[in-house]
Design goal:
CATH superfamily: Farnesyl Diphosphate Synthase
Radius of gyration: 21 Å
Shape: globular
Largest sheet: 2 strands, antiparallel
Distance between the termini: 24 Å
CATH architecture: Orthogonal Bundle
């Protein structure tokens, strides 16, 4: 755990130093841009850093660095640590970009208990008394901020791979990074598509379609991809990559299923999002698909009418929550989470990975899926 905490600190330091350099560049263009970089810095401060941790332990599991952050002087692979920290930092910047865009797509006003990035930019417009449409300024500027963070994540990742002794490992990691970006964008589109086109598909396909969104929008991106990127940067063998994928995908599914439950039942003080936000956004999740299988036609019609209404009041949210509990959908999701965690842990048994890394990955599996609501 101490090693993971140290990585989190180093990632934050790497991000802060990178942003300070970019702020200097921006200030030379126009002083007004500093408020833009300040917003990026505030958005990148803190967080659980799960993706950075999975990348690091993926690297450790394949490279087998024996002493973590205090490597032996003659352990040549340990010289790669600064590059690995930069690559882990790049994942966090990429995640921030995805969140900025996601909040715009979902019309979410808050993130982590504060205003979402585009709403902060809108508030800045109002506070300064500028002309024009404040909301449109926030949306336009938010899109640009997300794009900027995407570009910066590339810069950081390339800076990290440039420090690796094994350039072929760097290229392998870069290919996995590109794969992750493609898959998460595809998953994001599938999520939007499902919210809008679900009535055009057979009811029998609803669950499999919701599962596909989970896999590509979150499961691979949140757990599997960071693990594989890190392992690739450590020169992983095919057997090691296969083992990490077998661990990462089911764990990523469990992680997102837990997130879906938090999106409906989570305490706003813990999640940083309004209660029942996913219901107002109309997310066609596995939870909803399972509920629709159990509900009567009348109850299903009511659920469909309420789901996606941005003006749902607290009473309506409570009605939907109770319906989801009473029909057994919540219990089913909990069982699916438990099953996927078990499958993930089983994949690490006798896997050709460093023992210390296996222990840390097992601990992370519990950490990312046992969040209360």
């Amino acid at each position: 755990m101490a090693e993971s905490n140290r990585l989190v600190d180093l990632v934050q330091l790497g991000i802060d130093e990178f942003l300070a350099e970019r702020a200097t560049e921006f200030s030379a263009i126009a002083p007004e841009l500093l408020r833009f970089t300040d917003l990026a810095a505030s958005f990148l401060a803190g967080g659980k850093r799960f993706r950075a941790l999975f990348l690091y332990w993926g690297w450790q599991s394949a490279s087998g660095v024996p002493h973590g952050f205090d490597p032996l002087p003659d352990a040549s692979v340990s010289a790669d640590l600064p590059g690995i920290v930069l690559a882990a930092s790049a994942l966090e910047v990429f995640h921030a970009a995805a969140l900025v865009h996601d909040d715009i797509i979902d019309k979410s006003d808050t993130r982590r208990g504060a205003l979402a990035a585009h709403k902060r930019l809108e508030a800045m417009h109002v506070d300064e008394g500028w002309t024009g449409d404040a909301a449109q300024f926030g949306l336009s500027s938010g899109i640009l901020l997300g794009d900027l963070l995407l570009g910066w994540s590339d810069e950081l990742f390339d800076a990290g791979t440039a420090r690796l002794a094994d350039r072929s490992a760097g290229r392998s990691g870069r290919a996995e990074f590109a794969r992750m970006r493609t898959e998460v964008t595809a998953g994001q589109y599938l999520d939007i598509l499902e919210e809008n086109a679900w009535t055009q598909h057979p009811e029998a396909e609803a669950l499999s379609r919701a599962h596909r969104v989970i896999v590509y929008k979150s499961a691979k991106y949140s757990v599997e991809a960071p693990l594989v990127i890190g392992a690739a940067l450590g020169g992983a063998s095919l057997d090691q990559l296969t083992a990490l994928r077998a661990f990462g995908l089911p764990l990523g599914i469990a992680y997102q299923l837990r997130d879906d439950l938090l999106g409906v039942f989570g305490d706003p003080a813990v999640t940083g999002k309004p209660a029942g936000d996913d219901l107002r956004e109309g997310k066609r999740t596995v939870l909803i698909a399972l509920a629709r299988q159990e509900l009567s036609s009348q109850a299903r019609t009511l659920m469909d009418e309420l789901l996606g209404d941005p003006d749902l009041d607290d009473q309506q949210v409570d009605i939907m929550r109770n319906t989801l509990r009473e029909c057994g959908a919540v219990d089913k999701v909990e069982r699916i989470i438990d099953h996927n965690v078990a499958v993930a842990k089983e994949a690490l048994t006798d896997a050709p990975l460093a023992a210390s890394a296996r222990a840390q990955l097992l601990e992370l599996a519990d950490t990312v899926t046992r969040r209360v609501y």
